Amino acid sequence: MSYIIYAYSFFLIIAAVGILLAGESKKKPAMQKYSIIVIARNEEKVLPLLLTSLANIKYPQDLFEIILVDDDSNDKTYWLMQKMSQCIDNVRVIKITNKTLPGKKEGLQTALEKATKDIILLTDADCIVDPDLLINQNKFWDYNTSLVVGYAPETFDILKLKSLITMNTTCKEPNMFVNDILGDLNQYFANLRLLYPIKVFRRFISLAAAGIYVATIGLRIPFSCSGRHLAVKRKELIAAGGYKSLTSYTSGDDKQALRLIRSQGGIIRYNHYKSIYTLPIDKRFNDQQKRRFDKIKMSSYLHVFGTFVIIAFYLMMPAYFALTCDWSSLLTVYMVSLFIWVINLSKHKERFNLLDPVFVIIYPYYFIFYTAIGSFGRWKWKT
Fold it and tell me: Quick one: which of 264, 259, 270 has its CA closest to 231?
């Protein structure tokens, strides 16, 4: 067993190399043209923040458009989108009613077909974008790039959120709700100060997922991605079949698109810039985690095999150390795990937290738990 532990430690070092290898494109063409796409269903409680931040993007207006898709909502989502389109010229609104594709795929396919720019950039309604979103995105595109996986961390910093929201005086209706939403978030963040370890652990699992994405992309075996921040060449996605060819699963549109592009031989890069922030909506967290770890069934045979080897390794470790007290092997795998964690933090320009050494031990079992209930249990799609 000690040899297996040392082999696993070596595997972690290889993963750290993958994180270091993933970087910006060295051959950059002219500024790219983007279609920013947002699919939203019953998101009136968070959408105004995203809309306000989208209005502040620093980029030539003729080089990007914003496509807002209402996925058959029954709240004020569609109304907010329409008001946004009336005050900003490069915004278009689409309403989905008669759905024939599962989950968000109807909205994604419709937006893909309606988009006019070269690259579609996806984000979610519960996100806020940085004004430099497209400027940073440009750093990863060249003529050979087909898809860019982005970083979209949760933020519990109310001052950071406020800094990304500058009221556009022509968009009065979306702005009406911004202060109320920020007030609710501020209260939620204040309550979380009493549960500091939970807040820090949520940060850890977000960074851990990002570390898996960047490491596998750097090693040219991309595992997964997040639809909160994902960009892909429109014509290549359409040529590969688009979202209408991805009907096997309700969720996981992002990972399925990544696999589709990879099957066509496209180059995939990782954008580590914090250009999109996710609002930490507590009531969705559990189902969100189930959906995220349910994506393992969409993986290649190589990734599925690797995942189950890792799960078996961590399930065997407690019994092995209880029986042998092999502390040298334990220390080796622990120190290597901390090493890759520091590399991951450095890539994403995040700070080390004093609780991180504890979470390095806990996270593998969190991963196993949600992989099990995500794959075999039940979770709810948004209603």
Answer: 270
Q: 263 φ, ψ to 5°?
A: -65, -20
Distances (CA, A) of 292 to 59, 103, 125, 203: 32, 14, 17, 15
Q: Cα separation of 363 and 293, whole Å?
A: 13
Q: What's the whole-model pTM score?
A: 0.90
CATH code of the domain in which 45 resides:
3.90.550.10
Q: What is the number of alpha carbons within 13 Å of residue 86 lying toward its C-beta? A: 12
Q: Taking the CB of residue 250, how many other CB atoms lie within 10 A of it?
A: 15
* Residue 54 resides in a domain: yes
**Whether 149 and 225 share a structural domain:** yes
pLDDT in tens, 298-330: 667 777 788 888 888 899 888 888 888 888 888
Question: In 3D, which of 44, 46, 64, 42 has the Cα closest to residue 55?
Answer: 64
Q: What angle do CA 296, 294, 119 make, to 5 degrees?
A: 75
In degrees and rounded to multiples of 5, residue 110 shows phi and psi of -65, -45
Q: Helix, strand, coil % (nearest 5) of the chain?
A: 55, 15, 30
Give pairs for 102-105: CB < 8 Å, separation 24+: 102/247, 102/249, 102/250, 103/249, 103/250, 103/251, 103/253, 103/381, 104/39, 104/41, 104/71, 104/253, 105/243, 105/244, 105/246, 105/247, 105/253
Q: Which two tokens stand for residue 281?
A: 């909506």
CA distance linking residue 298 with residue 127, whole number of Å: 25
Contact between 185 and 161 (Cβ < 8 Å): yes
Domain of 364 in residue numbering reads as: 2-20+300-376
The Cα 256–Cα 246 span in angstroms is 7
Tokens of 243: 């979202």
163 domain residue, yes or no: yes
Pair (100, 128) in one structural domain: yes
Per residue in 126-173, pLDDT (tens digit) is 999 999 999 999 999 988 899 999 999 998 888 888 888 775 556 666
